[in-house]
Design brief:
355 residues, alpha+beta, Double-stranded beta-helix, 3-stranded antiparallel beta sheet, 26% helix, 23% strand, globular, disordered N terminus, metal ion binding, 2-oxoglutarate-dependent dioxygenase activity, TauD/TfdA-like
């Protein structure tokens, strides 16, 4: 593993000394996944694999090489879809732990414990059951947002950006589906950055934003469960504050690419500007996500499909267009405290330099 990124570099903005990535250079793809059938679902985001089983990877003699190449692929394509997975929640947990470690997460980072996770859950603290039946009773982000809007696009978010050390990778396996409906969409934060003018990018690179999930306190009371205030996967993630300040533009250490890092679900304020200016800037950035269908990929689930995505550089939104039950298991790993390396490139710059 490469040395931890130096915190003293004058090109680094943000981050935290206790939560720096353990890699100092982007990871390189070695080609171990080339033999598996796959296709890119759009030019900028999404790749689907068929015949690639997580359970087989975990038992393979080339386990670490395969997972490293998967980390590179997930981080560059934003989200990877693995069809028809025969994998248990325990194997998902083991896979998440290997994925985040091989991709260079800080030694202080582990798997996330969501503040609303019930203590004593049969699947353990680190696996969240995503259930439409639970959400009908009042469950987290979507319940909060549905009280304020009737626009489906209001649900776009990046997982747990309200934590001081948010998620690097997340995975969701759907095991119960309605007959139709329940698709999930992802959008590329890399592509959003590339759509900024140079002057706007320069402005945003000097700003931070506050991410806030204090509404989870209301949800915990509604559900009758105490909020989890102990260590939630990182020593920096504890207590009941549920707010964090992150750079508006961040660098993904696995690719070395810049991404927009604000989301409608949790980002409440751009700091250092007036509230009016903050509202204008945030609305513009949110609109870049919701009004550019060519930055998005939409995935129609089949039973036992699994998606693995990079929360540092994507946003996602579930589609609540069904009545029947829909359920799945989700695991989130924690990465580094978000930072911006001013020397890092945009996705388009990096790819054009390769050709």
């Amino acid at each position: 593993m490469s040395a931890t990124v130096a915190a003293t570099s004058t090109t680094i903005r943000g981050g935290n000394e206790q939560s720096r990535p353990r890699i100092s250079q982007p990871l390189e793809y070695s080609g171990s996944l080339d033999s598996y059938s796959h296709s890119d679902l759009t030019p900028v985001i999404g790749r689907e694999y068929r015949g690639l089983q997580v359970a087989d990877i975990l038992q393979s003699e080339e386990c670490d090489r395969l997972i490293k190449d998967l980390a590179v692929t997930i981080s560059s394509r934003g989200v990877v879809f693995l069809r028809d997975q025969d994998v248990t929640p325990e194997q998902m947990r083991a896979f998440a732990e290997k994925l985040t470690a091989i991709a260079g997460c800080p030694e202080s980072s582990g798997l996330h414990v969501h503040p609303l996770t019930e203590e004593g859950s049969e699947l353990g603290d680190q696996i969240s059951v995503i259930s439409s039946e639970k959400q009908k009773k009042g469950g987290g982000l979507i319940h909060h947002l549905s009280d304020t809007s009737r626009f489906a696009s209001v649900g776009w978010h990046s997982d747990i950006s309200f934590e001081r050390v948010p998620s690097d990778y997340a995975m969701l396996k759907i095991h119960q589906l309605p007959e139709t409906g329940g698709d999930t969409l992802w959008a590329s934060g890399y592509e959003l950055y590339d759509r900024l003018s140079p002057k706007m990018a320069e402005l945003l690179e000097g700003l931070t934003a506050t991410h806030d999930a204090t509404f989870f306190h209301d949800e915990a009371r509604r559900l009758g469960n105490p909020l989890r205030t102990g260590i939630r996967g990182s020593p920096l993630n504890q207590g009941g504050e549920l707010t964090a300040v992150h750079p508006v533009i961040r660098t993904n250490p696995v690719t070395g690419w810049k991404s927009v890092y604000v989301n409608r679900g949790f980002t409440k304020r751009i700091n250092g500007v007036t509230k009016d200016e903050s509202d204008l800037l945030l609305q513009y950035l949110f609109n870049l996500v919701t009004q550019n269908h060519d930055t998005q990929v939409r995935f129609k689930w089949n039973q036992n499909d699994m998606a693995v995505w990079d929360n540092r550089s994507t946003f996602h939104c579930a589609t609540y267009d069904y009545i029947e039950a829909r359920a799945g298991d989700r695991v989130c790993s924690l990465g580094e405290a978000p930072y911006l390396d001013l020397q890092s490139k945009s996705r388009r710059q990096a790819l054009s330099a390769e050709h």
